[in-house]
Structures are given as structure tokens and as C-alpha cells.
Amino acid sequence: MTKQEDSKLGASGLKLVSPVPLYGQIKDMLRKKILDGSYPPHSKLPSESELMALFDVSRITARQAIRDLQKEGLVFTIQGKGSFVTKPKAVQDLTRLEGFGEAMNSKGYETYSRLIGAREVPASSEVAHALKVSRDTPVIEIERVRYLNRSPISLDVSYFTLDVGRRLMDEDLETRDIFVILENDYAFPLGAADIVINAAVADEKEAELLAVEAGAPILRMERLTFTQDGRPIDYEHLYYIGDAYQYRLRVERR
User: Where are the transmembrane segments (predicted)?
Assistant: First the structure.
């Protein structure tokens, strides 16, 4: 174990009397360092032998800590080479209407946004149809890059009517989910959303913001969210890095 690795773990000893087993404490230490970026994607974790020496534990304990991280999808192991940090991959359940932060934070991921711009624009035919306004009616466009464990994962371009959008422009959109603001602050209970998903390739702007090459595969989603009384309130174009996001749903034969 090198001094650098030792400092990354911040090893201060394990609690011998604790409801959390030793392997769980080691796992939590490693997990924290993965999520805060101390161990970036594809970096190598300390070996079982190094963990044994650092924490004075058995090989079984060290191995179980690594295995639990594998089960969480945070690391992968290459036989004979060691364990490495996986690139973050967000998995969201399509059967639930959730904002990105809501869905990812509940799984223990760190999320935040970088606000690219918020401005008044004339509604295109597509936006006007979605929000049920006339073409060229002024609407508010909000662009953000979303981050998962400090890595860019999506570009979100959202449209709102002026009465809602102007209020949102004064909010902290880098740390708060718009869905949470709409429901908790503005008393707009959300009801349902229409979603369309297709494959696309990143143009120059999308590639620059998402730190990928132009032409890289991305997942493009259109989402129109309605309040419980049927008002269209949030129309979005969402662009996800192709290998970093998954949607899951269960369908039943009736």
C-alpha cells in the first residue's frame, strides 16, 4: 500500500464494536472515495493484500468488501490484474415519474447540474404544440448539463411558459431538481409524462458539453410532463451519453 493510496482511504482504523461488519466498513470507505472522485473511473483499487495490510483484516473480509462494491456496480474485476472503478451508469425506472436528481440520489449517487443558460425565446412549432401556446409565443428555455459522480451524463434543454419559467430563472437550478421545485415550492402536483426515446449522434455543441467526440452515440429523449389536472408544464429534450444511461421498465401481457 502506497502513502498515496493510504491517504485516499483516509484509514483511521475500523470500529471493532459496531453493528456494521468489518467488510462493510471497508466497503463504505472505498465507496465514499469512488463517489467523491478520489478514485476516478477506470482507476485501480487497492488489492486484497493491500487492504489486508492497511486494515489488519483477513483475506475473506477484504474480498467481501470488493465483492459488495461489484454487486453495487461500482467496480469490476479483471482476473490477474485487480479491481477497477466502473464508469458511472445511471439506471432509471421508466414506470415512475422522477427527476434525475430524485432518481439518482435515492441510489446513493452524487448529482448536480451546471447551468448553461436560461433565456426567453420564441416558441418553435414543436414547443408551441407541446405547451399548448401559439407559435412564436415567448417561452423560457433552460439548458443544463447534469453530472453523475462528477462526470457529465446528460444535456437537458427544458421549455416552460413564462409564468413558470420566469420564476424558475430565479431558483438554484444547479443543486435542485425542477420537479421538486414545481411540486414543493410552486404547488404544481405532477401527474404523468409522455416520453419518446430514440438513438442519435452528438453534434458539435452536445459533444463539447458532454465531453465526448462529435458523432458519438447518444440517447435522445423527449419528455412532456403534465400536472395532475392535465396542464402541460415542462417540455424537455434530454441528451444522454450513450454508454452511461439505461432505462428499465417491466411490461406485462394482458
Answer: none
Fold equal for 3-85 and 90-248: no
pLDDT per residue, tens digit, the chain (254 aa), is 444 444 445 445 788 778 888 999 999 999 888 877 788 878 999 999 999 988 889 999 999 999 999 887 788 888 888 999 877 666 667 777 887 777 777 666 778 899 999 999 999 999 999 999 999 999 999 999 998 877 888 999 999 999 999 999 999 999 899 999 999 999 999 999 999 999 999 999 999 999 999 999 999 999 999 999 999 999 999 999 877 766 677 777 87
d(CA 102, CA 97): 10
CATH class, domain 90-248, is alpha beta
Q: Exposure of 18 by Cβ count < 10 A (0-12 exposed, 13-18 middle, 19+ buried)? A: exposed
The answer to whether domain 3-85 has CATH 1.10.10.10 is: yes
Q: State how far the alpha carbon of 241 is from the alpha carbons of 103, 216, 237, in Å.
A: 17, 8, 13
Q: Where are the domains of the chain?
A: 3-85, 90-248
Name the residue with cell 465507496.
Answer: 31
Containing H/E element for 52? Answer: helix 48-55
pTM beyond 0.70, yes or no? no
